[in-house]
Amino acid sequence: MSAQTQTLYPDGVIGAPKDRRGHAAGAVTGLPPGTEVFSADNHVSVADDIFYEHFPDDIKDRAPRIWYEDGAYLLGRPGQSMVVGDFSAVLMQYDDLAGAVSTNIDARVRDLAEDGVDRELVFPNAVLALFHYPDKALRERIFRIYNEHIAGLQEASDGHCYGVGLINWWDPRGARRNLAELKSLGLKTFLMPLSPGNDDNGHVIDYSNEAMSEVWDEIEDAGLPVTHHIGESQPKCPSAVNSVAVAMMVNIDSFREMFSKYVFGGILDRHPRLRVGWFEGGIAWVPPALQDAEHVLASYRHMLGYQPQHDVRHYWDNHMCASFMVDGLGLRQIDEIGIDKVMWSSDYPHNESTFGYSERSLAAVVEAVGPEDAARVVGGNVRKFLGI
Question: Which entry of 43, 123, 256, 308 is 20 to 30 Å from 281 by CA?
């Protein structure tokens, strides 16, 4: 265990987020006075039955429901939750925290302040289970309802919370419609799944395929940055012991395939105004991914039907950034990654969040890169990403 790890984590078992409290008051992080701390990756659980409430009466019976059960807000059909197994067990660790849910913005802002966080970018929790809702028309309706809900939370937060929207990624007209709505609602970015599912003909959607170019055109023209988030990767086989830890290790390492689509699939060559953020996977993955991509390009260039127009570093340096919570290894490689390409987050209210010891995590950033650069990492870079 590194010396930094020994001093970063609190003594003993950190415990469930619902039992933690912030300790930032009076803590010395070393950040310059007046630094605004902006967590680049937090989450919220929807506590209201928003889809049922907003579906028209004639199709209410087809709306996914949201209900509270055994310490978690579940989602699906009555009696048939789409959130099961380790996923529901994880939700039970934090959904009883007052600020973790969408119905108590005051408690949320208070939790963040006590943990030393001024603003946040907010991703969904269980709603992600609806990414592949089978009826695509209803899926888009679900996304639009969620966008209005998270925009309402953003407005009620008085500038503390910025919501991440959801869009139709399978149809360019739907993408244009949703992106225009996001902008009218004041949302600054949206989440694209790493696994896009099937098209209307049952074929797997390939983001790098020419058929997707019109969707990328709409995204590029909208000018909103794209976010990708961990959480979709599944273990290849069951684990009888500590499956939640095994699953989390698999989930953290989620980005290489999509990263390769952007670089080798020509997405960024065809759409050079795209900006892409990678969230909750840390930053230490970036240097080996760049190194491996450079080696693959050098070794397989003679076999590639499409030749990337730039060297690999160009795509990272000009289009991408990533978030982390605790990543001493990544911070030691900051010159390779780029100080303007990394964004700190607390990941409130997740188990792996720094909630309850964020002052230690912030101090570790200062120790690694110095006060002035740390101010960019813990706030300035995500504001630039979002255009705030």
Answer: 308
In the chain, where the domains are located: 3-44+106-386
Identify the bridge partners of residue 343 per DSSP, sorted by sequence position: 323
**CA 346 vs CA 120, 138, 146, 316: distances in Å:** 9, 33, 23, 24
- CA–CA separation, 253 vs 256, rounded Å? 8
Q: What is the DSSP letter of 386?
A: H
* Residue-level pLDDT at 4: 53
Contact 310, 269 (CB under 8 A): yes
Could you report the per-residue pLDDT of 368-385, keeping only the tens digit for each? 999 999 999 999 999 999
Tokens 């639009």 — which residue? 144
Q: d(Cα 345, Cα 155) in Å, to the nearest integer?
A: 21
Look at the chain and count its residues.
Answer: 388
Pairwise CA distance, residues 253 & 229, whole Å: 11
Question: Contact 359/54 with Cβ under 8 angstroms?
Answer: no
pLDDT for 1: 43
pLDDT tens digits, one per residue of 56-88: 999 999 999 999 999 999 999 888 999 988 889
Q: pTM here?
A: 0.96
CA atoms within 13 A on the CB side of 336: 14
What are the DSSP E strand ranges found in 207-267? 226-229
Q: In angstroms, what CA-CA distances link 364 with 39, 112, 302, 336, 371?
A: 15, 19, 44, 19, 11
